[in-house]
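User: I'm putting together a small comparison set for a docking exercise, and I want a reference complex before I start. The sequence is below, and the ligand is 1,3-dihydroxyacetonephosphate. Could you produce the 3D structure with the ligand included, as structure tokens?
Assistant: Of course. I'll restate your input first, then give the structure tokens for the complex.
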Amino acid sequence: MSPRKKLIAGNWKMNKTSADAVALAQEIVSAVGKQTEVDVVVCPPYTSLESVAKVLDGSTVKLGAQNVHPEASGAYTGEISVAMLRAFFASSVILGHSERRTYFKETDAFINQKVIASLKGQLRPILCVGETLGERESGSTLRVVQTQLEGGLEGVSKDMATSVVIAYEPVWAIGTGKVATTEQAQEVHAFIRTLLGKLFGETIAQKIRILYGGSMKPQNAPELLAQKDIDGGLIGGASLEARSFLDLVNAAAAVK
Ligand code: 13P
């Protein structure tokens, strides 16, 4: 049995009005809001954080955000701080998602600032790493993942490290329906855990959860979640409907 509790996180991306987000959160809470076997996190857009937080209140489902700015306050038009997220009782934040790296030109150094600010503010970073199709085809997957992981975790102390969650999201598998094979995913997850061991020591590396993300669906989840180093999923498309998201939570609960 894995020493790590499985975690299923829904990344709703730029989807759902506040009313739609509340309806989805209500369905999730009524189905899995009392269970404690699997950690469940939903990450709505900023505009729905407050309304979804009210729905989650008193349940075991936790609130996450999709991004944060590293500065505490100031002239950063359009940005949101750690303290603002904490005020809604958000407990996690997705950082370094490939969509932010690609469309918003986020660098490892900038992502690292967010990781540090989040940890200092008691917000759990879900740090995303992953290679593009071209990088995989040219044989540089592990090098790319190593650069993103080490860059993103620079300056993170051993004390803070157990609060971090890593998400391995091969870019070519995101929203494409092309899921990584269990061998491909497990290989990179094991590699990430080895790197975490070098950074923080083996005991801590064994405690850090590494999620898989990229076209994870109820059909392919059981096999992925059964892998030794796959501790859960960061779910895009399948998190937008209660039925498929709940099936994924149940699939994680079924893994022994
Ligand atoms: P899909 O599950 O839609 O492929 O998205 C994965 C993802 O990017 C989660 O952050």
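The radius of gyration is 17 Å. Residues 24 and 242 are 6 Å apart (CA to CA).
User: Thanks, that's exactly what I needed.
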